[in-house]
């Protein structure tokens, strides 16, 4: 009789376990979605960190141009303007380039 009782207990536990599996699958799916979003954000952050120096240089262009003009380094200012025009042509779809061009039309 003890064996039958043990089988009955195992059967009860198996039924409870099989009832919990769909909830577990749903929770695992949500977890994987969250992990995927975090990994995507981390990849974007790593890319930004790798290009940090270039981004800073690009953001400093208006200030550098102003400094060149104030100090009468006109040739350097013209070279910088040419450089910005090349960047605009090459990177016109990048929002930050569009913002700099919009805010500083004297650069193009």
Approximately how much beta-strand content do the residues carry? under 5%
Number of helices: 5
- Low-confidence segments: none
Distance between the termini: 92 Å
Helix content: over 70%
Q: What is the H-and-E element order?
A: HHHHH
Write down how many β-strands occur, each being a DSSP E stretch of 2 or more residues. 0
Which of globular, elongated, flat, extended, rod-shaped describes the shape? rod-shaped
Biggest beta sheet attributes: none
Task: Give structural notes.
The termini are far apart. With about 110 residues, the chain is mainly α. Helix 3 runs antiparallel to helix 4. It has five helices and no strands. The longest helix has about 50 residues.
Summarize the structure.
With 108 residues, this protein is mainly alpha-helical. Helix content is 86%, strand content 0%.
Q: Which terms summarize this structure?
A:
5 helices; mainly alpha; 108 residues; single chain; 86% helix; 2 domains
Topology:
Layout (H helix, E strand, L loop, with lengths): L1 H49 L1 H8 L1 H10 L3 H17 L4 H9 L5
